[in-house]
Amino acid sequence: MKFISYPISGQHLYLKLAVFLTGLAIGVDSSLRQLLIQLILILVILGFEPSLYRLFLNSLKRLLPFFAGYWVFATLFAQDFLTTVFFSIQILYLIAVTVYVLGNVKLKDIAIESKRLRRWKTVNYLFYYLFATIYFIEAFFAEYRNLKQVKGGNLVLAQIRDVLKKVSSLSPEINTSVTDLLSFEREKEIHNYRANYLGIFFLALLVIVHSL
Predict the structure, then answer these.
(1) Buried/exposed 107-125: b ≥16 CB within 10 Å, e otherwise
(2) CA 129 → CA 4, 41, 135, 182, distances in Å?
(3) C-alpha of 35 from chain center
(4) Buried b / exposed e across 150-160, counting CB within 10 Å, b at 16+?
(5) How far, in Å, CA of 113 to CA of 133, rounded?
(6) Using one digit for the tens of pLDDT, what is the confidence trace for 141-185?
């Protein structure tokens, strides 16, 4: 969408939280028909930022073994077919909501937009823990991929422990990165009003569709 910069990922943090909480509440309390309509609605909205489709499809690929195992389990234990379909659609819907909220989001934007919330020490600590966890996970997978390229094949437990030790040694650097991130300030505040209007419109549609 050329006339809006980052129409979905550029929406304000508070609006994203509203969409996420509403999406979760609606997802738990929906019929199969409502879930299907809501899922289609989200997928249509994701079309405003096509790169999010790739994230959605990648998430589905990673969950394919789970879906396969679940359907085998449901078949073996003679679970009602509609119940199996409903649960599968519910998972797809929750994945779509998560991609909408977290897809392409920049940590700097979250840090800036959560500044008022982080005035409370407890909230600030939660954000620090969240960002630090993200950095540690990224560091772990980066080291894991590097070692796997060198060693080839699947890594043994001892090698994984080496990866964990190396990542742990990065604690001071990660601490500095998170501290800098939480204190980051833009020279000029950026307001993506059109993206926020789209988010409000989508949130309203989600509620309306659920009430049908």
Answers:
(1) bebbbbbbeeebeeeeeee
(2) 32, 33, 10, 11
(3) 19
(4) eeeeeeeeeee
(5) 19
(6) 788 777 767 666 565 566 677 777 888 888 888 888 888 888 876
What are the pLDDT digits (tens) for 46-100? 989 999 999 999 989 888 888 889 899 888 888 888 889 999 999 999 999 999 9
DSSP states of the chain: -TTSSSTTTTS-HHHHHHHHHHHHHHHHS--HHHHHHHHHHHHHHHTTSTHHHHHHHHHHHHHHHHHHHHHHHHHHTT--HHHHHHHHHHHHHHHHHHHHHHTT--HHHHHHHTTTGGGSHHHHHHHHHHHHHHHHHHHHHHHHHHHHHHH-SPPPHHHHHHHHHHHHTTHHHHHHHHHHHHT---SS----HHHHHHHHHHHHHHHHHHH-
Structure tokens at 122: 């407890």
Two tokens, residue 20 = 């996420």
Q: If 0-12 CB within 10 Å is exposed, 13-18 middle and 19+ buried, where does residue 100 land? A: buried
* Size of the chain in residues: 212
Both tokens of residue 79? Answer: 């679970």
Handedness of CA 52, 140, 127, 109 (dihedral sign): negative
